[in-house]
Amino acid sequence: MPPLNAVNDSDSHSHNLIGATSDRDDSEHSTFRVLVDASGKPLPKTPEKVRFGSVSVREYERIVGDHPDCRVGPPIAIGWGFVEQGDRSLDNFEAERSTNRRKSIRLTSITRRNILHHLYGIPEKEIRMSEKEVQIILQNRVATNKQTKASLKIEEAKESARRKFRRVFSAKRFASGLEKAMRDSSRSLVPVPGAHQWQPEAPEAVYSC
Questions:
Q1: Fewer CB in a 10 Å sphere around the end CB: N or C, the chain?
Q2: Same-domain status, 60 and 37
Q3: Where are the annotated segments for Disordered (predicted)?
């Protein structure tokens, strides 16, 4: 931003204005102006306007890709090479993109093959090699998924066996402890020779008149 300069504004009546003004950029996309009076108080802001001119368009080359989700035909990708298409009006560019975008999102396998071979000169051999590579990636992915599912089932079986073993072991330990406690209690009830044995007293006779 250029330094502050003292300017005289013809719209102001009797005081000098100190303004910070930015020049328009080369593309004339935006302008702004901030004004303050002599005491340093900011004046009401002038409305800011944004105007877009044109956009530059580049068309990038297409190359053979390796995306495994492309199950039929060769996958297509974007390379580093490009061709400048020149400047276009923003309104025209948006209008063209909105009408053509949905139609060109999905490409059939034949369309992809024709684009790669006829428009960009990619040999058929390279296209077929790409298709084989994608199939190999798909097969490896399927094998990995199966192996993962099998591993999960094995881990679940191991965890289930561990839980059952803990339950059985706990039950056996409880039964063993109970049996030991019963043996200990039975030993404590064995009479000792020479020890005084308690005998229940005979009931007293009751006479009625």
A1: C
A2: no
A3: 1-30
In a domain, 93, yes or no: yes
9 contact partners, CB below 8 Å, separation of at least 6: 17, 19, 35
Same domain, yes or no: 30 and 67: no
Question: pLDDT higher for 116 or 36?
Answer: 116
Check pLDDT > 80 for residue 209: no
Contacts of 133 (CB under 8 A, 6+ apart): 66
Q: Which pTM value belongs to this model?
A: 0.42
Last residue of a domain, one of 106, 128, 150: 128
Q: Is 83 within the bounds of a domain?
A: yes
pLDDT of residue 96: 77
Element (H, E) at 81: strand 76-89
Instruction: Tell me the sheet residues that pair with 128.
Output: none
Short-list 174, 85, 82, 73, CA closest to 130? 73
Cα–Cα dist 28/50, whole Å: 9
Helix H or strand E segment including 110: helix 109-114
